[in-house]
Amino acid sequence: MLIVPKLDPNSEVPYYIQLYTFFKKEIINGGLLSGTRLPSIRVMAAQLHISTTPVELAYQQLLSEGFLTSKAKSGYYVQPIQTFNGIAAPSDLRSSKPYPITARDSYSYAYDFHISKNDFSNFPHKIWRSLYQEQLSNTDLLQYGDPQGEPALRDSISTYLSQFRGLRCSAEQVVIGGDQYTICSLLSLMLQGRTTSLGFEDPGYHLLPSTFKRNGFEVKAIPLQEDGLHVESLYRSKANTVYVSPSHQFPRGMTMPIAKRLALLDWALNTNGYIIEDDYDGEFRYHGRPIPSLQGLMEDSPVIYMGSFAQSVSPALCIHYMILPKALLPIYHELKSELYLEHSASRLNQIALHYFIERGYFEKHLRRMRLLYQRKHDIVLQAIKQHFKNKATVSGKDAGFHILLTLEHNNTAEQLVSVAKAASIRITPMTFTWWSEPEKDALEFILGFGGIDEDQIEEGIRTLAEIWFP
């Protein structure tokens, strides 16, 4: 059998890679059948007018990957492999449900009311660069670190949370992770065998309930009332763990009052359950006093507190954390040992952040950012009042990075989003936050203000009102 691969002498790809790619493709596609004997290294090199080295390197790579076998004094032969016949996946494995409209698209907008973008115009670049460079000189930080997180940063986090968010915790209860999914996955493993079902706010943020569902938990959507999760529905659900965002519910933005927080704690004590408290933007409250955490309302509370520095500093740091009840610490350490866990957040970023907090830079940065976001928040509210007049209502204000815009219109949410996009305005319908079907056909939109420039807000709101209500 004559086999003559075509080599491109002008390509930047080396000959041996070109040969390897050619043979691999032919074997996978069935062009070279199992048992086919390839030309010897010398014969192939002579046919291609090249040295034997590229041919030998290509054959050796194919050998190591199992595409070929070598027989002494006989040559190289194609190994039997499983080929693909092009049969489509069974239809029941493919979802017919359309993807909802979310804020995640790559389109560039002139007026970008993204629901989770930050403003880095005031980011302390020089300070952070200096702190980071300090850590680069410590070669020990290039080694593996503590899977639970750097002890110095865990101490800084527990101190900060105790002082400013009212938590009752110590450094030993802090677990640091590189992203939300890592933290949620680890938590679901810790709770397996101790709880079986998870209740969560609907509408709400789906990452944690989706993670728990993937890990075998029964998940139960719990409706909201004007002041937060419906506790009676939680009791009826028979869930023994609940996931809530009491300081600023996503996406509706309500703050859970103290009476309902105490009712939730009472539910946990009565059912021997756990509360997972997501405090994703608790530092950013613009009018009124900051709301203390649910976790800190009682000593040794059955609350797993989750937070991060994604909004307060930068998502690029990839530093998230959870505060575990003391009762769960032995289970965490058992998993850490069993799974050979390693640190998932950069040690360099962790130690730099520790000094950022310890030296007072974090507190100053938070004050500046809180004032900046408060100005944007107030501009948004004033612009909506001026340009939408009585055609829209606002809810979920006074905290966080978004407000909820509700209106009545003859068009659907998808049609209104399309009209806005044509005018280069990003706005996100709230529909993607529902786990179950929405209770009503209300037109509700999440309007983020964190990342848009202050001088674009009023013009963007005015344009949106004009195109939706010409």
TrEMBL record:
What residues does the HTH gntR-type domain cover? 13-81
Q: Which family does it belong to?
A: In the C-terminal section; belongs to the class-I pyridoxal-phosphate-dependent aminotransferase family.
Record-linked InterPro entries: Aminotransferase_I/II_large, HTH_trans_reg/aminotransferase, PyrdxlP-dep_Trfase, PyrdxlP-dep_Trfase_major, Tscrpt_reg_HTH_GntR, WH-like_DNA-bd_sf, WH_DNA-bd_sf
Q: Which organism is it from?
A: Paenibacillus monticola
Q: Short name of one Pfam family for this protein?
A: GntR
Q: Does the keyword Protease apply?
A: no
Spell out the PROSITE patterns in the cross-references: HTH_GNTR
What GO molecular functions are on record for this protein?
DNA binding; DNA-binding transcription factor activity; pyridoxal phosphate binding; transaminase activity
Keywords associated with the record: Aminotransferase, DNA-binding, Pyridoxal phosphate, Transcription, Transcription regulation, Transferase
The cofactor required is: pyridoxal 5'-phosphate
Q: This chain belongs to which protein, by name?
A: Aminotransferase class I/II-fold pyridoxal phosphate-dependent enzyme
